[in-house]
Design goal:
The protein is an alpha/beta fold. The protein is built from 18 helices and 14 strands.
């Protein structure tokens, strides 16, 4: 069992318990192990912490040797946002692809298989799924991370995802409450604002969260967004009206409330991470997520001390901090009980269902998500093409480490395939020059959000009407090209599914 270091008082232990920090490297640093002994109950993993499933399993075992009930969290949405496969691309399509298929049994199976792989590596809390309704096509940070723009569709798939993930013993953390879909600003950079009236918010933003709560989601993540109809002064993460009155009292949610990353500029630039963390816990948050950018012992110490000082000065009620810490421990107990059941001889129907799952369900889903235009007259390629990737700047949630596109998969099917990345006003002409006489496959991501990308496609299609276009973002722009493939995401399996059509004409 976990042994808390003697001399660590209850208030300090509670302050450490509510933190979910990150750390550098693929093994746990000494300072992190020491903090686990002092009361820290959670850690957050990012791409920098993961080299392979075997290494990840060793890392989580190292953490549990120090504290057996530690919550090990990860931002593994599948699709564009992957940490398990950050350097190769995900084996699972993201939410938008699953929403395009609109088969809730498939969504549940994908989430269960993803959960199984996380559990095998010792991860027991996933900061997913995104329950945001992507009602604003210009949204720069949600996009294909959302199941879609229809609240009912998002709600049923959010519930299925929560059920599937938690069937594997991995707690779901439904995000970003009260809904990040109708924003045109990325909260990593600034504070987004949603100017919708209460009736719209109730029917649009809140519908998927009600479904997630009904499905038993063990955690909910708050959004760093300003919603004046709910609270004109403070972003959701810092708002008692949104976290306590709305989420706890009106929606009846009693699980863990986790903040989005506190070092994100939407909060940090105005409040700072210490004051922001105090305000978040006071507002009703139970766990403070930090570590995507700030990942060191100094950050943990600063936040711990800020919480302790706030209690001692009367700014933060001691009982509120104690209640938050208790919710963290309750979730830890749930994950331990699920892990023990999985290790036992008879886990019951949930385990049987997982065992019967298809390891290739991600590829199956990616194939089903494809939407083709022009395929009735398209002749599959038999010679190696030139793949022109019209590449936008990746948002921080996705990151630029993860490869995307169809070039690697086409290269396996058509050896000799060449590729280049292009951006800016001269992208179309540069791609034409680079392609030479080869057939062009143009790969785009959210053409509708990037004028330079649309212009580059104009240039390519005017000069080479036989160009194949693969849209790997939200397919909002009208389809064009000799063949247009909408993959609804840029995961590795989405690229493979598109490549199969281009080279072999096969489509599930």
């Amino acid at each position: 069992m976990t042994t808390i270091a003697s001399g660590t008082d209850t208030l300090t232990r509670d302050a450490l318990t509510v933190l979910q920090p990150g750390f550098p490297g693929t093994t746990a640093p000494d300072w992190l192990l020491r903090r686990l002994g002092e009361g820290l109950a959670s850690v957050g993993l990012f791409g920098r912490n993961i080299a392979s499933p075997q290494q990840l399993a060793s890392l989580t075992a190292q953490l549990r040797a120090e504290r057996d009930d530690v919550l090990v969290a990860i931002d593994e949405e599948g699709g564009d946002v992957t940490r398990l496969e950050v350097r190769t691309g995900s084996s699972f399509p993201g939410n938008h692809a699953l929403g395009a298929v609109d088969d809730v049994s498939l969504t549940l199976e994908v989430a269960a298989e993803l959960g199984r792989r996380l559990a095998e590596c010792g991860v027991n809390l996933n900061w997913a799924p995104s329950a945001d309704v992507n009602s604003n096509p210009a949204n720069p940070v949600i996009g294909v991370r959302s199941f879609g723009a229809d609240p009912g569709l998002v709600a049923r798939h959010t519930a299925a995802y929560v059920t599937g993930l938690q069937s594997a013993g991995v707690a779901a953390c439904t995000k970003h409450f009260p809904g990040h879909g109708d924003t045109a600003v990325d909260s990593h950079h600034a504070l987004p604002r949603i100017d919708a009236d209460p009736a719209v918010l109730t029917e649009r933003e809140l519908t998927p969260f009600r479904a997630a709560i009904a499905a038993g989601t063990r955690a909910v993540m708050s959004a760093h967004i300003l919603v004046p109809a709910l609270d004109p002064a403070r972003p959701a993460t810092l708002s008692p009206r949104i976290l306590t009155t709305l989420l706890r009292e009106e929606l009846g949610y009693d699980g863990l409330i986790v903040t989005d990353g506190m070092e994100m500029q939407a909060v940090a630039a105005t409040y700072g991470i210490e004051r922001g963390s105090v305000l978040a816990v006071a507002a009703g948050a139970d766990a403070i997520c930090v570590g995507g950018g700030l990942a060191d012992d100094e950050t943990v110490r600063r936040l711990r001390d800020a919480l302790v000082t706030a209690v001692r000065t009367g700014e933060l009620p001691e009982q509120r901090l104690a209640d938050a810490a208790q919710r963290v421990r309750a979730l830890a107990r749930w994950t331990v009980s699920r892990s023990s059941a999985a290790a036992g001889p008879d886990e019951g129907a949930a385990r049987a269902g997982r065992s019967a799952g298809r390891a290739d369900v991600g590829l199956i889903a990616a194939r089903r998500a494809l939407r083709l235009t022009g395929d009735d007259v398209f002749t599959p390629l038999t010679e190696a093409p030139y793949v022109a990737a019209l590449t936008p700047v990746a948002n921080i949630a996705v990151g630029d480490e993860t490869p995307w596109g169809v070039a690697a998969e086409l290269g396996r099917l058509l050896p000799g395939t060449e590729t280049g990345s292009f951006a800016g006003t001269d992208a179309g002409h540069a791609a034409l020059v680079a392609a030479g006489e080869r057939r062009i496959v143009a790969v785009v991501r959210d053409e509708h959000r990037h004028a330079w990308m649309a212009a580059a496609l104009d240039t390519l299609l005017t000069a080479r009407p036989d160009t194949v276009v693969v849209e790997m973002g939200v397919p909002q722009a009208p389809p064009r090209g000799a063949l247009h493939i909408a993959t609804h995401g840029a995961a590795r399996v989405c690229g493979r599914a598109a490549a199969e059509v281009i080279a072999a004409g096969t489509h599930a």
